[in-house]
Q: What sequence folds into this?
């Protein structure tokens, strides 16, 4: 009888510990500053963090049960991503365009890792997303400004060369 009580007490303690750990995990998902989600082995979304929901414009748990490919702007991008990820079981900074709930395109860097069980079988995936849309926009604007400056520079150099040429002609004219 004492052994049964011991096991019941131990089961109760372990259940309480498990509940505490689940609470920590839920809190962790809520405070992560980087958009994250988890999926099962076939890329069905199981959990999303608060910043993920904000970035993509979805309500809490709205994407649960959806396939990750629903976020990808282009189907072939998801195929390329999933093929590379399945081979390596780990990716860092995979650049792709994803789509928000409202249809806005976001340039993001995806990092991902496969979760495996003791036998090495993939039981799920963890993903993080970094929005680089503003960086891409700024780079594009900077390239345009550089091109514009290069054009102005060519015009200025051409003008200066013409001025030197005219000065030489004036000098030759005065000498004659």
A:
């Amino acid at each position: 009888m004492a052994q049964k009580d011991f096991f019941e007490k131990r089961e109760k303690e372990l259940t309480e510990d498990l509940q505490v750990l689940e609470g920590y995990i839920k809190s962790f998902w809520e405070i992560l500053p980087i958009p994250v989600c988890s999926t099962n082995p076939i890329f069905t979304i199981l959990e999303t963090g608060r910043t993920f929901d904000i970035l993509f414009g979805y309500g809490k748990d709205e994407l649960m049960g959806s396939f990750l490919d629903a976020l990808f702007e282009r189907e072939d991008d998801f195929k390329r991503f999933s093929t590379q990820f399945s081979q390596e079981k780990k990716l860092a900074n995979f650049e792709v365009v994803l789509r928000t709930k409202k249809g806005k395109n976001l340039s993001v860097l995806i990092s991902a890792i496969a979760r495996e069980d003791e036998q090495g079988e993939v039981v799920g995936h963890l993903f993080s997303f970094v929005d680089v849309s503003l960086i891409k926009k700024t780079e594009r604007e900077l390239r345009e400004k550089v091109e514009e400056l290069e054009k102005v520079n060519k015009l200025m150099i051409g003008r200066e060369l013409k001025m030197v040429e005219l000065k030489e002609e004036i000098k030759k004219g005065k000498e004659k």
